[in-house]
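Hi support team,

I'm filing this because I wasn't sure whether my run with alpha-L-arabinofuranose finished correctly. The job status page said complete, but I'd like someone to confirm that the output block is well-formed before I use it downstream. Pasting the exact inputs I used:
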Amino acid sequence: MDKEQYKIAVNKERQIGKVDPNIYGHFIEHLGRCIYGGIYEEGSSLSDERGFRKDVLEAVKNIKCPLLRWPGGNFASNYHWEDGIGPKDKRPVRFDLAWAKEETNRFGTDEFIEYCREVGAEPYICVNIGTGSLDEAIHWLEYCNSSGNTYYAKLRRENGHPEPYRVKYWGVGNENYGEWQVGYRSAKEYAKVLREYAKFMKTVDSTIKIIAVGADNPDWDLEVIKTAGKYIDYISNHQYLGSDDYYETVASVYWLEKRLKILSQVIDIAQPLVKEEEKIKIALDEWNIWYRGIPENGNEENYALKDGLFAAGVFIILHKLCQSVTMANLAQLVNVLGAIYTEKHGLYLTPIYRAFELFTNHSGDIVLDTFVQSERYDIEGEGGIAKVKFKLHNIPYLDASATLDKNENRLYLAVINYHKEKEIDCPIVLNGFSPSAEAKIYELNGPDVMAINDFENPERVKIKTAIIKNAGPKFTYSFPPHSCTVVEFQIE
Ligand code: AHR
Ligand code: AHR
Ligand code: AHR
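And here is everything the job wrote out:
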């Protein structure tokens, strides 16, 4: 009997965990046109009275942004938060060392929290351990979360915010392993600083979650967990990948998977040495395709369908790793490596945005172990701004993730056909389910892998919908080349 080349099988009994909604998180940094001219543009006819671009707000709400990281990134390491509160016209303009530009401070903590509330996101603040101090971090935390009588709790109330902001997620530093960072440190130095900040920030508010800087390097990550593991809840990982080459770009999804699995193993090795309670989780708190954007062009890319498929592929990996990766932030939301692209007169949505649109609106919260049989290939390549070299074997042309939404009795099968030319006829078996014969199709695709969206043609890469009538526990579906399809079943 011929072995089938392609097959997808799901079993209702084999549930591997819950998707944390925070894996669909975002990041805004004071860099280029991400904040000023992106989400925030005072005086624009497209903005509301707060200066928030209404068209951007609508687009952000449409991808259910659950979590928003701010103010950087590299910027965070020289940001003095007190410059960004109080009457806007009195706020000082400062020189920003991270990106060598002037910062007006017109968007600060109160504006950030207001933005999070408006889009329904949990705020995630990254504190300054470069030019900042423990005092400054503690004061920031008091300003945000304290209901007490301290100077900073009162200051928030005086600024018109009686209720504490209850900011749950706090990052201690950013990429401190890199020479480019203000506050560049060795693993040992960083780990000690982290321990101090984390311990005393939790003294001020024991309910917060601390995100430590991971380096995508087991030596660094081990040191950080051994020294400060008792006080941290997450360790971070950053992944910037992609190139002009199609397969190099989409295959790098599996490089990202490998790096996250290594970090998960490092946690397994190091954590028992320091704490037994809840497992330290991974925060993939910066990830994207980034290989062209440079400071001179404001770190702007122009994403193509191939990059959207990469993002969709990352979500499939994050579903599989739902036990260890419970937070992820695309870097970044607007213009700077942006999912959304704005000009003064309007915006368009990139293929990466489309991947968010697909997954945040059409996936469930329980992950099912999804068996995928596929033709495979080997690839040697590199990617990202740092030209990371990789060798990968047995990369599938077809990959999938099934998620179940128990309450609504819906099953979502997300399938990527990474093949550049070939349509793939794939038998699908849904064991333990009685799905209806009618199913909804949401297909992210475009005319070719290099297709982009722009103002002239904002819908070149988009999500097409259809209904099929021949679904059921066993059926075959033809997945078009270079596409990501979600098949949504009603469970009887
Ligand atoms: O997202 C752009 C930059 O990339 C961030 O500021 C930094 O953390 C990373 O190097
Ligand atoms: O009420 C929020 C904060 O929780 C308080 O400011 C802090 O003292 C407590 O830990
Ligand atoms: O390395 C490629 C493998 O192919 C991945 O580990 C797996 O998720 C995929 O099916």
